[in-house]
Specification:
By secondary structure, the chain is α+β, with helices and mostly antiparallel strands. The protein folds into two domains: 222 residues, Jelly Rolls, CATH 2.60.120; 233 residues, q2cbj1_9rhob like domain (Jelly Rolls), CATH 2.60.120.620. It has ten helices and 24 strands. A hairpin with a 5-residue loop joins strand 15 and strand 16. Helix 2 packs across helix 4. It is elongated and about 80 Å long. It starts with 10 loop residues before the first helix and ends with a strand.
């Protein structure tokens, strides 16, 4: 656990760019903006729902419009003169960038305000987007847009990613991306704009459309409760996915209330034989002096890591059996705007794994965790200092301490996100995660669990997977958590992922 430039260009290049910037730059935009007949045909398709050969697609070669999974449109060439595009890329690459990194994304964003910059090529593009493009989109979609336009530059490099989201915020109405990627960009490089279908609850279900970035192409889509999309992780170390993106704003529209998940069914403490309990736990954690020391640390810091928690033979068998579970028995846990990892049905796990789950949910474990943390997790435990939190929990959940467990598998692409409808964060709880099969795991792979305060970006705590360790963290209602996206670096490791058994205990 832990509490939480770019290279210089040759002088000749800099001089040439400076002299270039002093000259007047000329931009030739796509002739589609002046083609009234093409505009009417696209408008008929988009606004008046005219179907073409029973297809949801409209493609002229210059413009591709599609209604599924939500309305989006691709203009193959926004700018006609290639020299302008090359100079624009040079100008953008000379900007200063800062890393943006949280639960949802990891990439670099320009620090310069593109709304006010006087750099010639960016200014010329901005005028086109603010005027020609905005007016054309209004005519095509029938959406009234204000003059407010957000615009920034994003740079995605190896392992950078933007996870599933819908872009809905305030009065955003249309999102756009203008690509400045190398001409050689291909599917294997990653970085595709991926669009999701919806499930019966209006949540994202699965990726049904992929758009490969193409230099000088301009993509836009309507921001709606259905516009779930993501930027696929960058899988190449040799190329940079550069883009200028943002939102057009307009009158707010009514949105349906978001779907709220119910908490998993709670499990009451399980009775197991005393000898069975002792056969699993490392004897050092039964020592009263050790327990007192752990409790002192936990009360002070609200977290602790218990290394070598299980007896070695039990742990090794657990690793072996969980690793050998057939792939078909692991199912994806979503929806992807909240989480993406694998779980196994607890009724189908090997007997040894089932016994471990019984041990973790046992009456004796509730008593032990009470002794280690000072929380009121069992009637035999002393009254804790968190009595106020305990009473509030009981009002919302019930009078008896309980828990719920999952057996999870983490691999490339796995993550969890912070979200507004998370019912679990409405209750104070003790998070307990037993890490399995994560030998030599490095934080740079992702997979660390981060805790943050509501409304804040700075980490309060970061928990990195460590084999046979039990991470205990007390979480109040003002604390959020997420598991960082596991990136492509893990594919070169021995295990290419790890497993854990997570259990959330309620007083």
């Amino acid at each position: 656990m832990s509490s939480k430039r770019k290279s210089a260009k040759p002088e000749a290049d800099v001089k040439s760019k400076k002299s270039k910037n002093k000259s007047k730059c000329h931009i030739d935009v796509n002739k589609i903006f002046d083609d009234e007949q093409a505009l009417q045909r696209i408008r008929n398709f988009v606004v008046f729902q005219e179907r073409r050969k029973n297809s949801d697609n409209y493609d002229t070669g210059v413009v591709q419009a599609c209604k599924s999974p939500f309305f989006h449109c691709v203009l193959s060439k926004l700018v006609q003169n290639e020299n302008f595009v090359e100079s624009l890329m040079d100008e953008v690459l000379d900007l200063n960038f800062v890393e943006k990194n949280n639960d949802l994304y990891k990439f670099h964003q320009s620090t310069e305000d593109l709304k006010t910059t006087k750099l010639p090529y960016i200014s010329a593009l901005r005028e086109v987007i603010y005027n020609d493009v905005r007016e054309w989109i209004m005519k095509v979609t029938g959406i009234e847009l204000t003059t407010q336009v957000d615009m920034s530059c994003a740079m995605y490099r190896y392992t950078d990613v933007l996870s599933c989201h819908d872009d809905e915020l305030d009065d955003r109405r249309v999102a756009f991306i203008y690509y400045l990627v190398p001409p050689s960009w291909k599917e294997d490089d990653g970085g595709r704009l991926q669009m999701f279908s919806l499930d019966e609850n209006g949540e994202p279900k699965e990726i049904v459309k992929n758009l490969i970035p193409v230099q000088n192409s301009f993509v836009f889509f309507e921001v709606t409760p259905a516009s779930f999309h993501q930027v696929e992780e960058i899988l190449t170390e040799d190329k940079t996915r550069l883009s200028i993106s943002g939102w057009f704003h307009g009158p707010r529209v009514d949105r349906p209330p978001p779907y709220v998940e119910t908490l998993p069914a709670p499990c009451l403490p399980i009775s197991i034989e005393e000898d069975e309990f002792y056969s699993w736990i490392n004897p050092q954690y039964l020592d009263t002096v050790t327990q007192a020391s752990i409790k002192e640390t936990f009360v002070e810091e609200s977290q602790i890591e218990l290394s070598n928690f299980l007896q070695e033979n039990k742990y090794e068998e657990l690793v072996s059996l969980l690793s050998s579970i057939d792939k078909s028995k692991w199912s994806n846990k979503g929806p992807p705007n909240k989480r993406n990892y694998l779980v196994v049905d607890q009724s189908e796990v090997p007997d040894h794994v089932r016994k471990c789950l019984n041990f973790i949910q046992s009456d004796a474990m509730f008593v032990l965790l009470s002794s280690l943390t000072g929380l009121k997790l069992h009637e035999l435990a002393e009254v804790s200092d968190s009595e106020g939190d305990e009473e509030e929990n009981q009002k919302q959940r019930g009078d008896t301490p309980c828990c719920h467990c999952e057996v999870r598998k983490w691999q490339h692409g796995s993550y969890t996100l912070v979200h507004d409808t998370d019912t679990e964060t409405k209750l104070c709880a003790l998070d307990a995660v037993l890490y399995i099969g994560c030998e030599d795991w490095q934080p740079e792979y992702g997979g660390t669990t981060s805790y943050i305060a509501k409304g804040e970006d700075e980490e309060l705590l970061s928990v990195c997977p460590s084999p046979n360790s039990l991470a205990l963290v007390y979480r109040d209602t003002e604390t959020l958590k997420f598991v960082k996206h596991i990136n492509a670096r893990v594919k070169d490791t021995q295990h290419q992922g790890f497993m854990d058994i997570t259990c959330v205990y309620y007083e």
